[in-house]
Amino acid sequence: MKTAQEHNQSYNYAFLDEPSKREIRRKTLKAVAIPGYQVPFASRELPIARGWGTGGLQLTLSLIGDDDCVKVIDQGSDDSVNAVSIRNLVQETTNVSVTTQTEAATIIQSRHRIPEVPLTPEQVLVLQVPKPEPLRNVESSEKRTRIQHGEKNYNAMWLELYEDIVKWDHALFDADYPVMVHGRYLMAPSPIPRWDTPKLHQSSFLTLLGAGREKKIYAVPPYTDVEPLQFDDYPFQVESFNSKACTRCGSTDVFLEENTDETNGEVHYQCSDTAYCNKVLDEKGGR
Amino acid sequence: MAYVTVTGGQEAIEAAKKLADTYRLDPQQPPLDPSLIQKQMRLLVDRIMSEGGLYAPELASLALKQSEGDTFEAAFLLRAYRSTLPRNHYSHVLDMENMRVIRRISSSFKDIPGGQVLGPTYDFTHRLLRFDLMDEHLSRDDLSALEESLPDGVEWRDKNLTFTKVAGILRDQGLLGRNPALSDTEPPFDITREKYTSPAPRSARLQALARGETGAMMALAYSSMRGYGAVHPTIGELRVGYAPVCIPHPYQEGESVYVGETLVTEVETINKFATNEESGEVEFFLGYGCCFGQNELKAISMAILDRSISDGGTAPAEDEEFVLEHIDSIEANGFVSHLKLPHYVTFQSKLDRIRATKEKQNGGE
Q: Could you confirm whether A271 is annotated as catalytic?
């Protein structure tokens, strides 16, 4: 019986065939050149299910080289089973080094979080995208949303926001809060919490977004304006944790996840970014 | 290679994989030989090849074994494997008149040139469980006797049946229109290499339908026949057989090279008539379906959907984007299943909104 290592050498480097990777890179360049614009691409099927990060993974696989160091997180965690599964696939088909430390990574593939540690110009953030079309909730036809983007006609979204405010006195968009990219394209930033949205504005790093099932690649290049949809009198708000602290590392200025203790029913909070939590603990000498 | 601390997620994945193998295997039984699946689960293999978009009976059989018979998983395995292969050639348009036919029927005409060939089908059998199959024994002599009892006797294998198309009869009488012909010189729009947008080129539409999931296509085709749409065709011809595949000669221009044959099911349906806007003639409209293997339900559904999309309208089955975007087994399966992934962050964001909304309603802030 072949070992996993031997077996996987029967596949091409980074799984995809070279012409496929080249096509993805070309589409990525186009995406970088037109910030926020969804570039259609063919999208190959991967050994990971559609809707489980195949858009992000195709970006990672097309960019990766021997000098790279990859970090994969799912909802902030390196240890989430899907993150592990994606990381294993990258490693098995490329042998590149992998890490859980945000600072050590050159490519960070993430589902639904931007790390708490500020990223640098040397790093690329790859976000997995389930629904790339920010207008989909107000217009089901792709044919029509393409026209709306062409005409920069985002009235339906402004109306949605206005109706939320009239009805509920604030915006109901939770994660994946729609943003305007450099004053031109409305963009779905992927289901990152609103907490992470401001990190995209005038960032020093490149963010690539890949939707495998919907076959779209788009990008936020460094130093691009990314502004959430908001009215002057109803400004965009991030999630509130009412000054709660992580029960593990004590951090307060981070995105927290709440959990209920099954024995006493008490609610406690923990950092969603597990690598950050570990780092803070290490610095305190607490691990 | 950097070392990543083995953590809970990693261990759980490994254990789950091993556990699944123990569910699949039983020491009292020999492990399933994929060649048994290939021969005795023939129609299932055909379905997987067509939904996986890869004509590879051996690999489809392996995929079925590996996935414990889950058709969605098996088609997914084939598609993922397919991604590792470069696209080297586009074949010429298949010459269906030269198909080595194993089955061919028409529900439009009783007498068709060459006659109706029922071929291997369960269509007119009674769906009674054959309990004798519970413990089936077959010797070489038994199989010979079975073959000898066929109308053509043992010769059946050597029969090389080719037929002209039934649609040709109507076309000769000026009663049937043509679908826009697919060019044989221009390569088709390749949906595995480019994302199509609606309205899709005809070659893209046919590819998407040919790879669609049988059940999903059947449901949409049925909806059109039943009332959410208007397509209720007559089958001009349904044929199953081995079609020769040729590719352009790599060096000699104008020459082609025969590379093998594929089993396909092809269906042409005859629909309502109307005035052809181009020719001004009153003609029947055609619906076209074709897929790998013997999968008649899918080929008929495809022909209905092809017609239904061309006619257009407000019903789901008449909307090209609706049909093409929702029949792909790999995409639909993946996205529905992704709900099993953790959504802790997004749900936390939702919790924040509902709590803030409640606060507002209770007069807070």
A: yes
The distance of B29 to chain A (nearest Cα, Å) reads 21
A217/B292 Cα distance (integer angstroms): 31
Question: Residue B66 to residues B32, B55, B59, B78: CA-CA distances in angstroms?
Answer: 10, 18, 10, 11
**Interchain CB contact of B349 with A (< 8 Å):** yes
CB A192 within 8 A of CB A203: no
Confidence at residue A287, expressed as pLDDT on a 0 to 100 scale: 63
Residue A69 is among the residues annotated as catalytic for this protein: no
Kindly list the structural domains of chain A, giving each domain's residue range(s) and its CATH number in brackets, ordered by start.
4-134+180-228 (3.40.50.11310), 240-287 (no CATH)
Element (H, E) at A29: helix A18-33
Place of tokens 């696939």: A89
Q: How far is B320 from B2, CA to CA, in rounded Å?
A: 49
Q: Which of A53, A56, A210, A249 is catalytic?
A: A249
- Residue whose tokens read 């109307």: B274
What's the ipTM?
0.84
Tell me chain A's radius of gyration from C-alpha atoms: 20
Q: Are B77 and B44 in contact (CB under 8 A)?
A: no
Selecting from B1, B9, B346 the residue whose C-beta is nearest the C-beta of A175 gives: B346
CB contact under 8 A, A81 and B9: yes
B227 alpha carbon, distance to own chain's centre: 24
**Strand ranges of the sheet holding A39-40, from the earlier edge strand across to the other edge:** A39-40, A216-220, A206-211, A124-128, A107-111, A69-74, A97-98
User: pLDDT of A6-18, one tens digit each?
Assistant: 445 668 899 998 9
Is the CB of B345 less than 8 angstroms away from the CB of A176?
no
CB contact under 8 A, B83 and A257: no
In 3D, which of A27, A24, A29 has the Cα closest to residue A44? A24
Assess whether A277 carries a catalytic annotation. Answer: yes
Is A36 marked active-site?
A: yes
Contact A52 B338 (CB under 8 A): yes
Q: Is B11 on the interface with A (CB under 8 A)?
A: no
- CA atoms of B18 and A123, how far apart (whole Å): 37
Tell me the pLDDT tens digit for each residue of B193-248: 899 988 999 999 999 999 999 999 999 999 999 999 988 899 999 999 999 999 99
Preceding peptide of B199 cis, ω within 30°: yes
CA distance A217 to A134: 14
Supply the pTM of this predicted model.
Answer: 0.89
Residue A234 neighbours by CB under 8 Å, 6+ apart: A165, A170, A171
Cβ neighbours of residue A59 closer than 8 Å, sequence gap 6 or more: A24, A28, A109, A126, A208, A210, A217
Separation of alpha carbons B194 and B188, rounded Å:
11
Using CA coordinates, name the residue in chain B closest to A44: B83
User: What are the structure tokens assigned to A3, written together?
Assistant: 């070992």
Chain A residue nearest residue B328, CA to CA: A213
Contacting residues of B for A94, CB less than 8 Å apart: none
Dihedral sign for Cα B209, B214, B216, B218, please. positive
B244 closest CA partner among B38, B94, B63, B86: B94
Segments making up each domain of chain B, as ranges: 8-82, 96-327
pLDDT of B100 higher than 70: yes
